[in-house]
Amino acid sequence: PRWPAAAATAIGSEENGIDPAYPWRFDGRLWFRPSLVRVPEVLPGDVKPIALLGWTIGGVVCLEYDEAPTGGGYREYATMGSLVAKRGTVGQWGRRMFVGTGEAETLCRRVWDWSAAAREIEFAEAGAALSV
């Protein structure tokens, strides 16, 4: 694909974000459980749903980082509300997000203007199935 210059730079770099003090590099694990969900009635701004017959791809995303700009390990849990498009880019719109630290909650508001909620998040790895 042909990437805009800004996107190509971000893809080839380990640093992005608005503050040079935060390189926004996260190393860890991701678990995504996709599911079919109804298209939300309202999406923010100029975000457009990608849907077929009133259905889109949503699901749950769990992230566990060994090290993050917020210091030490970090966990995140998000409910994905829709597959979306904006200015030629495809992504997931997060309907609800929980973050593992108060600092991450503050950064979500400051950097992305997104209201995340700080919660204690624990991943239970023992057993036959993954649970959060």
Structure, explained:
The protein is mainly beta. It has one domain. Helix content is 14%, strand content 40%. It is built from two helices and six strands, in the order H-E-E-E-E-E-H-E. Strands 1, 2, 3, 4, 5 and 6 form a six-stranded mixed sheet that branches. The radius of gyration is 16 Å and the shape is globular. The N terminus is likely disordered.
What labels describe this entry?
single chain; 132 residues; 6-stranded mixed beta sheet
Structural class by sheet pairing and helices: mainly beta
Q: Spans of 5+ residues with little confidence (pLDDT < 50)?
A: 1-15
Number of strand segments: 6
Molecular shape:
globular
**What's the structural domain tally?**
1
| Average pLDDT level | 79
- Share in β-strands: 35-45%
What value does the Rg take, in angstroms? 16 Å
Helix content: 10-25%
Q: Termini separation (Å)?
A: 36 Å
What is the number of helical segments per DSSP (H or I, 4+ residues)?
A: 2
Taken in chain order, the helices and strands follow as: HEEEEEHE
The main β sheet shows up as: 6 strands, mixed
Quick structural summary:
With 132 residues, the chain is mainly beta. The chain has helices at residues 5-11, 102-112; strands at 27-38, 48-49, 55-67, 74-86, 89-99, 117-118. The protein has one domain (26-118).
